[in-house]
Amino acid sequence: MSELATMSCEACQVDAPKVSETELAELIRSIPDWHVEVRDGIMQLERVYKFKNFKLALAFTNRIGELAEAEFHHPGILTEWGKVTVTWWSHSIKGLHKNDFIMAAKTDLLLD
User: Fold this and answer.
1) Structural domain of residue 99, as residue ranges?
2) 57-92 pLDDT tens trace
3) From the CB of residue 86, how many other CB atoms can be counted at a distance below 10 Å?
4) What's the whole-number mean pLDDT along residues 87-109?
5) How many domains does the chain have?
6) Under DSSP, is residue 94 helix (H, G, I), strand (E, B) or coil?
7) How far apart are CA 102 and CA 58, in angstroms?
8) What is the distance between the alpha carbons of residues 92 and 28, in angstroms, rounded to a whole number?
9) Is 40 within the bounds of a domain?
10) CATH for 52
């Protein structure tokens, strides 16, 4: 289990710093199944999870929703037949914050 998964998100304000290139390189090693996507100039973490059917994908989506509400940090989620794409980024700073890496690690734990 990633050490990140044991951490809690901190309140992220508009003026919170984005992760630096050095921090990004270090943090991404803790969540090797995730990759960085840049959309509209905004760095985001993304992972695609595969499932046997829509019912299992939807159940996973619901667990992500519960986690997001508990941490008050919300991802982009695309649920399809047999697949869930999860995208984490900090909307308030339009980029990546340590919270996004924490949430990615916590999302991985939902598979167990």
Assistant:
1) 17-109
2) 999 999 999 999 999 999 999 999 999 999 999 989
3) 24
4) 95
5) 1
6) coil
7) 22
8) 21
9) yes
10) 3.30.1360.20
pLDDT digits (tens, 9 = 90+) for 12-55: 777 788 999 999 999 999 999 999 999 999 999 999 999 999 99
In a domain, 68, yes or no: yes
- Identify the sign of the CA torsion 59, 62, 71, 20: positive
| Residue at 10 is within a domain | no
Q: Which residues make Cβ contacts (< 8 Å) with residue 67, sequence separation at least 6?
A: 103, 106, 107, 110
Cα 109 to Cα 5, 18, 57, 85: the distances in Å are: 8, 24, 15, 15
* Amino acid letter, 21: E
Q: pTM of the predicted model, to two decimals? A: 0.92
Confirm whether 7 is domain-assigned.
no
Per-residue confidence (pLDDT) for residue 1, from 0 to 100: 54
Q: What is the pLDDT of residue 34?
A: 98
Using the structure block, give the residue that is written with the tokens 């840049």. 38
